[in-house]
Amino acid sequence: MDSLWTxxxxxxxxxxxxxxxxxxxxxxxxxxxxxxxTVKLLVRREDSARARVLVGDSVVCVHETYGDTWLRDTGPLxxxxxxxxxxxxxxxxxxxxxxxxxxxxxGLAQRVARAEGxxxxxxSLILEGGAVEVDGxxxxxxxxxxxxxxxxxxxxxxxxxxxxxxxxxxxxxxIWLKNGLHFDxxxxxxxxxxxxxxxxxxxxxxxxxxRHNRDVHAEVMRGLRGARDARGRRLEVVGVPAPxxxxxxxxxxxxxxxxxxxxxxxxxxxxxxxxxxxxxxALDVLQKAMPGRKxxxxxxxxxxxxxxxxxxxxxxxxxxxxxx
Length: 324
Prior knowledge:
Distance between the termini: 8 Å
CATH superfamily: L-arginine/glycine Amidinotransferase, Chain A
CATH class: Alpha Beta
Structural class: alpha/beta
Number of strands: 16
Shape: globular
Order of helices and strands: EHHEHEHEEHHEEEHHEEEHEEEHEHE
Helix content: 25-40%
CATH architecture: 5-stranded Propeller
Strand content: 15-25%
């Protein structure tokens, strides 16, 4: 991985009284990642001094117009073409089905691509990066709840998505799960329920600790265990404990907490933690599932108040000889 983009939280509409906590979580992530990859942080000029104090001198601060912090969904997708040259794709974005759309969200993908000096292609179809998980060998995992939701692309069916993913990413096999987490405003992003940690090896949450999502976790695990990837392999599925009792500071409502919204960067894995009893066991399970990488747990409860965690806020840039 060449570099990794993220963005400084500033929207009071998202975090309210938890804005400072979200910033502390983001700073912790930036400090951890800056030791292994070049971190490029979108930040408003008026926030630069405070951000610099928290993130340290190794992070590259970029002054660019942006709205939401969730660059996985508003930023571009960095790919390679058949010659190995880097290219970027941007997709339509409608605020997760018309829920949240802030000034600066639209057009951000092109602005980031321009800052990277890469060839940019804009697709009209609405797609968020957190809605698709790929293994780099032709397999993608998605949820029906998100990709077939009429609040995104009415009339676009499974067969159409197969064609789109083949053209964009070289995907030959889509594994369709039914639903994502309850209380998740993204309408079921897959990066909260299932992640590849290697081709043929996927992690998901065990039905257990999170009583609100036991049925979802059980359904996801069944779906993955019955699936084969693009190369015909039956998936090896590792269950990760689900965090229990993670609720909003605002109204004590459940939040879509999970340990799967981690980000992998050059051998380091930053995993969101929430100060609950399952944290240590989840980190241990993930470390065993990724023995060649260093798994690091970082606080993310403040960031989660805005709707996501570490995978959601990051967008990686790959060099010509690397695969996403």
